[in-house]
Write a structure and sequence with these properties.
alpha+beta; three-stranded antiparallel beta sheet; Cytochrome p450; five-stranded mixed beta sheet; binds protoporphyrin IX containing FE
């Protein structure tokens, strides 16, 4: 492990500087962030600016029109996530939050337990967990709770995968070879087309079904409750600007947000626990309890060490001085990328007591697992029950152990991870 990152960084030629930063971000983030927080909390590199202290990360994520989500714009078909604090974002996010009724959550957790439990029970003591479980459970929930029925789960998984790959891991600061970058865009475009066709069919069919249900006053036709059906059963005044096309876009957003994020978090949390026997043992004991508080606290603390990404990213719309009034106040220029390094913020001793220690039940509001500010995750309450319940179901298996490590196949996402357990 390298120390004195900044010495190496300062000594490197301009053209090599960001390549070094990229390597440290990918291979030794925590010691690198620690040095930055201490010595240069805001690091301006030729590719982007890293912001590493807790308060400054929050500041960046709250100045929506200055640090914008423009990097999402070319990746999304006018979805709310690519809008900064405007009418569409407010309208569609609040509407979708309303549809994802938080009173559903106990039911959602028990659906996840059933889906996850049955996959594991059918696996006979051995599973490649990433594809058969980490991706499959959220894909099944997307069908059963969100109501995106009529497509194969493998397709749902693929559509989410390429969208997430392109949206979160294909920007200039990812330093991908141009051929790979183009390939990802091509796959994303291809799968977006399939997803678009599927959503059109789904909404058309369900629209007719809801209409039939209404005509029969639910006496002959009674549809199952899910989010798509709920949206279609609800009438929106024309002036609320939520027509059937917008409804479809938002249904697609549920699928895209749910699968690869959950899969990565669950695989990485499991691996972290398998690599830390003390916490594996604590989690296994807590998994038996009916009250989930203790178990879930362990899961969220594990995710702090292995988050799905160590940073978020924004494009600066106008010059702005971050951390004004401090001795490291730094002006960031319009047109440049800023990386609020959320994992670093979660190791900042200004907000986290003994940050290098694993301490379950920390203050939830200091975690950045689901983002922060206006773009905080729409699906966070679903994620907050789905992720721990999936991990719990795995740890309920007797003698559960990992066979080796997660294989990332040189990409950003877990692709394979073998687990086994005792069946009799
Ligand atoms: C369960 C289903 C999920 C859905 C439907 C979903 C959907 C979304 C949406 C629509 C946004 C954008 C919100 C906005 O721009 O206002 C978002 C943001 C975010 N989501 Fe989720 N998500 C889900 C699960 C997850 C999971 C499991 C994680 C991580 C473990 C996650 C992490 C995030 C983060 C960090 C952001 C903030 C992105 C930013 O600020 O640029 N999401 N999510």
């Amino acid at each position: 492990m390298s120390t004195n990152y900044l010495e190496q960084y300062d000594a490197a030629p301009e053209a090599d500087k960001f390549r070094l930063v990229r390597r440290w971000l990918d291979t030794e983030p925590l010691p690198f962030f620690k040095e930055l927080r201490e010595k240069r909390p805001i690091l301006v590199t030729p590719a982007c600016t890293l912001v590493t202290r807790f308060d400054d990360v929050r500041e960046v994520l709250q100045l929506y029109k200055i640090f914008t989500v423009k990097p999402y714009v070319p990746k999304m078909d006018n979805y709310l996530m690519a809008h900064d604090d405007d009418a569409l974002h407010t309208r569609e996010k609040t509407l979708m939050q309303f549809m994802l009724n938080r009173d559903d959550l106990p039911k959602v957790r028990s659906m996840v337990a059933d889906i996850a439990g049955s996959i594991l029970n059918n696996a006979n003591g051995k599973i490649e967990i990433v594809n058969s479980f980490c991706r499959m459970v959220p894909a099944t929930l997307v069908q059963q709770y969100f109501g995106l029925t009529g497509a194969k789960r493998e397709d749902l998984i693929e559509w989410s995968y390429w969208n997430q790959y392109d949206t979160f891991h294909n920007h200039p600061f990812d330093l991908l070879p141009p051929e790979l970058s183009k390939q990802i865009i091509d796959r994303h475009n291809e799968t977006s087309k399939k997803l678009g066709d599927y959503i059109t069919m789904l909404i058309a069919k369900r629209f007719l079904a809801v209409k039939a249900e209404k005509l029969t006053f639910s006496t002959i036709i009674r549809l199952r409750d899910d989010i798509v059906t709920r949206m279609l059963r609800t009438g929106f005044a024309k002036e609320s600007d939520f027509d059937i096309k917008r409804l479809g876009v938002n249904a697609g957003g549920l699928l895209i947000g749910a699968i690869e994020t959950t899969a990565q978090a669950v695989a990485q949390i499991l691996q972290y626990l398998f690599q830390h026997p003390q916490w594996l043992s604590a989690a296994t004991t807590a998994a038996q309890k009916t009250d989930n508080t203790e178990f879930d606290g362990i899961v969220w603390e594990a995710l702090r060490f292995v988050p799905i990404s160590s940073y978020l990213f924004r494009l600066t719309a106008s010059d702005y001085t971050i951390a004004k009034g401090t001795d490291y106040a730094t002006t960031v220029n319009a047109g440049t990328y800023v990386l609020p390094v959320t994992q670093s913020a979660m190791f900042d001793e200004r907000a986290f007591e003994s940050p290098d220690e694993f301490i379950p039940q920390r203050n939830w509001y200091h975690y950045f697992h689901f983002g922060f500010g206006n773009h905080e995750c729409l699906g966070r309450y679903v994620g907050m029950v789905m992720i721990p319940e999936m991990v719990r179901q795995v740890l309920l298996k007797k003698g559960i152990e990992a066979q080796g490590a997660i294989d990332y196949k040189s990409g950003p996402f877990p692709e394979a991870y073998q687990l086994s357990w005792v069946t009799q």
